[in-house]
Write a structure and sequence with these properties.
abc type-2 transporter like fold; 2 domains; four-stranded mixed beta sheet; 374 residues; mainly alpha; 15 helices
Length: 374
């Protein structure tokens, strides 16, 4: 049996049969969308509305400093700001008092600004620190300029030079730090998302398993019969038949991975290749044991969801079921998830691949023996 000719035929059939490619095409589009959605959620900016009621000029200086921060500030009326916060279109608002300039120049620091934030907003401690620092900057300039104006012979050029030097200082680190202590029962680990590349792995397992449905047609298909009759190995035929689909899944993974913006994309790609090969070996076992087409379809669905769930690919494993995440080390998805999470994976992934490949060789050999006797 010419394995190269079989692989070329399988590749041609795979690329011309839209039904065969539909799963991978759908998986790529869906998972790219999921990955991009995750990225947008992670990069979602904090929107702050600013209400400037200051009758002097220091309020404008404070706004200029705020606009240099990593938040999305917008100057609006008070009614608009209240409405935007109420409907959750903004995470907070800053109200600059009408006598902001007057109070700073007189050394009165009470009730300069009013900060309102949503109860469920995040990073607000740091945001409040930024507001305080920027007010300190404005107050410091106003105080020093007032003192400089009282010095005989100090002209406008001197003030301009001072303002330039002050701008260079303000571009540095924060002048004030606020230490926040949060008391909780236990520290929660950082949540790992990247659902796009996780769900693509789920689709890949299902696709690779059902790609072996040709092994269930022994009575009607001459390919498997001829291979066994000529003393060929089912495992070799399976690898030849599976290789084109394996290559397609790896190629389809590339746009999904790029959309996820994972910081260790190279490691995740390597882990996915090992995961796909390990899943292909696992599917050889399932195809050899299923026997009938209906059994294989049911097995593909159940095994895919169960293995992906226990490995943590479908969703995060809750604390009460953490034992499943530990005992799922015999599954390829466990080590792929480890790579996505930034944990070591190489030794485990290679070991699992070798084990399932060995089991696949044995079960396919047993299938050949059984079919040879029929």
């Amino acid at each position: 049996m010419n394995n190269l000719a079989i692989m070329k035929g399988r590749t041609r059939a795979l690329l011309t049969d839209f039904g065969s490619l539909a799963i991978i095409i759908l998986a790529v589009f869906v998972c790219v969308y999921i990955a991009r959605y995750d990225g947008k959620e992670a990069e979602k900016s904090i929107r702050i509305k600013v209400v400037n009621e200051d009758s002097g000029g220091l309020g404008e200086e404070l706004i200029e400093l705020l606009f240099e921060e990593n938040y999305e500030f917008e100057v609006v009326s008070r009614d608009t700001a209240v409405h935007e916060v109420a409907v959750n279109r903004a995470q907070g608002m800053i109200e600059i008092a009408p006598d902001f300039t007057e109070k700073l120049r007189m050394g009165d620091y009470r009730s300069l600004v009013k900060v309102t934030v949503m109860a469920d907003s995040y990073d607000m401690t740091y945001f409040t620190e930024i507001v305080i620092n920027d007010i300190v900057k404005v107050w410091t300039e106003a105080l020093i300029e007032g003192k400089l104006n009282g010095i005989e012979g100090f002209d406008e050029a001197g003030l301009d030079k001072f303002r330039t030097m002050a701008d260079e200082v303000w571009k540095g680190d924060s002048l004030l730090s606020i230490e926040t202590i949060t008391v909780s029962e236990e520290e929660k680990p950082e949540e790992i998302t990247y659902y796009g590349i996780r769900w693509y792995a789920v689709f890949t397992m299902f696709y690779l398993i059902i790609s072996g449905t040709w092994m269930c047609g022994y009575a009607s298909s001459g390919l498997l019969r001829r291979v066994i009759g000529r003393g060929g190995r089912i495992s070799t035929l399976y690898i030849v038949q599976m290789l084109p689909g394996l290559i397609v899944t790896v190629i389809g993974f590339v746009p999904v991975l790029l959309s996820s913006n994972h910081p260790a994309a190279g490691k995740v790609f390597a882990a996915f290749v090992l995961y796909a090969c390990g899943t292909a070996a696992l599917s050889l076992v399932i195809c050899s044991l299923s026997g009938r087409f209906v059994n294989l379809i049911l097995s593909a669905t159940v095994v895919t969801m169960a293995a992906s769930l226990f490995a943590g690919l479908v969703c995060d494993i809750p604390d009460w079921a953490a034992i499943w995440g530990k005992v799922s080390g015999f599954l390829p998805g466990h080590w792929y998830f480890s790579a996505v999470s930034g944990k070591p994976f190489l030794i485990g992934a290679v070991t699992v691949l070798a084990v399932w490949f060995g089991v696949g060789l044995f079960t396919s050999w047993m299938l050949g023996v059984k079919r040879g006797r029929e």
